[in-house]
């Protein structure tokens, strides 16, 4: 069985594993940072500070846990309201909510049949946004990267994105993303796995080096 065959099959536990990785690595790191670091601005989410990103993440996962996914949830207006509702909270309280939600959301996402898997990947990407804003190494990398790549491949296939064949400098086997039945030849990507994540998440790629042929970067963004 090839890696492409594996990624054709949904692993319901994968989003929960991504959340658990960040619960066990990012949250302790944040608890050790001074309060002023939470006010740092993020390059990936213009207008949002580190605190805003964390408030959004904790709110989004709490909504999943509490089954409060009404129409318009996760829209820009809904996200802004969630952040505003936590404006008087201490940083520690936001982290408490985030840690709890990262633990409890995984099983809920697993039972949703794939409909919420993108939330798990999005929260992992936001952890990378925070690391980058804080100057921490390993943004969009770390122990969760293999599961993130597998989930990305599955999501792009399910959502019928443009097909892409990725030769990753730091991964042994090529990664096939998007709809294999699409009436166009696959685009080709050569570069680091973390840069591929940046492209698909619509994150800045300044300072990276990669080759992309047959598709424009904007076509890849799964969160557009």
Structure characterization notes:
The protein is built from nine helices and four strands, in the order αααααααβββαβα. The chain is α+β, with helices and mostly antiparallel strands and about 220 residues long. Strands 2-1-3-4 form a four-stranded mixed beta sheet. Helix 2 (about 15-30) packs parallel to helix 6, helix 3 crosses helix 4 (about 75-85) and helix 3 (about 50-65) runs antiparallel to helix 6. The longest helix has 21 residues, at about 90-110.
Quick tags:
224 residues; 8% strand; 9 helices; disordered N terminus
Topology:
Blueprint: H1 3-7, H2 14-31, H3 50-66, H4 76-85, H5 91-111, H6 117-134, H7 145-158, E1 164-168, E2 175-177, E3 187-191, H8 193-201, E4 210-213, H9 217-220
Parallel strand pairs: 1-3
Antiparallel strand pairs: 1-2, 3-4
Helix pairs in contact: 2-5, 2-6, 2-7, 3-4, 3-5, 3-6, 6-7, 7-8
Distance separating the two termini: 32 Å
Low-confidence stretches: 1-5
- Number of beta-strand segments: 4
Number of helices: 9
**Which sequence of SSEs, written as H and E, runs from N to C?**
HHHHHHHEEEHEH
Task: Please compute the radius of gyration using only Cα atoms.
Answer: 17 Å
Mean pLDDT: 94
| Beta-strand residue percentage | 5-15%
Q: Largest beta sheet, briefly?
A: 4 strands, mixed
The chain-level structural class is alpha+beta
- The amount of helix comes to 40-55%
The neighbouring-strand order within the major sheet is 2-1-3-4
């Amino acid at each position: 069985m090839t890696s492409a065959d594996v990624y054709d099959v949904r692993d319901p536990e994968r989003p929960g594993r991504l959340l658990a990785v960040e619960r066990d690595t990012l949250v302790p790191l944040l608890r050790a940072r001074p309060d002023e670091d939470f006010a740092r601005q993020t390059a990936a989410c213009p207008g949002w500070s580190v605190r805003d990103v964390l408030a959004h993440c904790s709110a989004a996962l709490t909504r999943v846990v509490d089954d409060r996914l009404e129409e318009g949830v996760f829209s820009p207006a809904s996200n802004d309201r969630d952040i505003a509702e936590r404006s008087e909270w201490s940083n520690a309280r936001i982290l408490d909510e985030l840690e709890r939600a990262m633990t409890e959301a995984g099983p809920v996402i697993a039972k949703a049949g794939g409909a919420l898997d993108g939330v798990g990947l999005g929260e992992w990407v936001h952890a990378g946004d925070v690391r980058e804003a804080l100057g921490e190494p390993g943004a969009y990398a770390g122990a969760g990267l293999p599961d993130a790549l597998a989930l990305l491949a599955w999501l792009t296939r399910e959502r019928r994105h443009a097909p892409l064949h990725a030769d990753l400098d730091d991964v042994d086997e090529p990664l096939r993303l998007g709809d294999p039945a699409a009436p166009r030849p696959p685009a080709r990507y050569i570069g680091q796995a973390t840069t591929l994540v940046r492209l698909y998440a619509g994150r800045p790629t300044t300072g990276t080096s990669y080759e992309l042929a047959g598709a424009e970067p904007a076509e890849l963004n799964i969160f557009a």
